[in-house]
Amino acid sequence: MFLVTGANGQLGNCLRQRLGDKAVYVDKDELDITDAQAVFEFCQKQNFAAIINCAAYTAVDKAESDEELARKINADGPANLAATGIPLIHISTDYVFDGNNCRPYNENDTPHPQSVYGRTKLLGEKLVMEKASAAVIIRTAWLYSEFGGNFVKTMRRLGAEKERLNVVFDQVGTPTYAGDLAQAIVDILPQLRSGMKEICHYSNEGVCSWYDFAVEIMKSSALPCLVLPIESKDYPTPATRPAYSVLNKAKIKNLFGISINHWKESLNTCLKNLS
Description:
Layout (H helix, E strand, L loop, with lengths): L1 E4 L4 H10 L3 E4 L9 H10 L4 E4 L13 H16 L5 E6 L22 H16 L3 E6 L2 E2 L6 H11 L2 E5 L3 E2 L2 E2 H11 L8 E5 L6 E2 H11 L5 E5 L19 H7 L6 H12 L1
Parallel strand pairs: 1-2, 1-3, 3-4, 4-5, 5-10, 6-9, 7-12
Antiparallel strand pairs: 8-11
């Protein structure tokens, strides 16, 4: 039996579809991962083979003025889960990097987060590596799915309402379909070994800007909305986003035998499911 935390989010819901009754699913109402005693007692009651931590404070801009809560959820929570001694798959982010690279980031590149969100997620990584008996940390980026709020669903809604939209073209990365990431996690679970401590990168294949992504969403959704490219400076936000956050996936493919779809292929899968 597995434990999935943050189970009501995008990735948690995708894991429900794939793991079914092989897991116990909890969100903050069932288990507050920032409460070390509650985590310990909950995990004592069941013999979990592994924990998959999808819980996170992901309101990137709000985190700039709410650092204490972001730290509790993104750092203290994962540390509490790691301290149970149960093997842990923990989800992290491209925001641990500053975005100044001109080639895809690999796992050995030095993190340099530029936001509270990025800093608290990086601290979570460090605490997991210190405290876990076994852990695989998966950094991902630009997550979307059929569930919850995300860029794809927002673009489809706005595309149906508006004739034109402005979207930044100078932030480059790769969208990640949460269904694909969930399947990768399911494939990794039986390969977890005692003492294993790895950081891996996972997103879909290919590279695009948010503008390119929006254009493809409109095209594939048959929406006539015109998408116009703008610079990040024309759309200021409280938190700094990485300008370049393409992730090198060679390690996760080689280590765990994971195959990865191109982002356009996975976008079409998601859009079919939404329709």
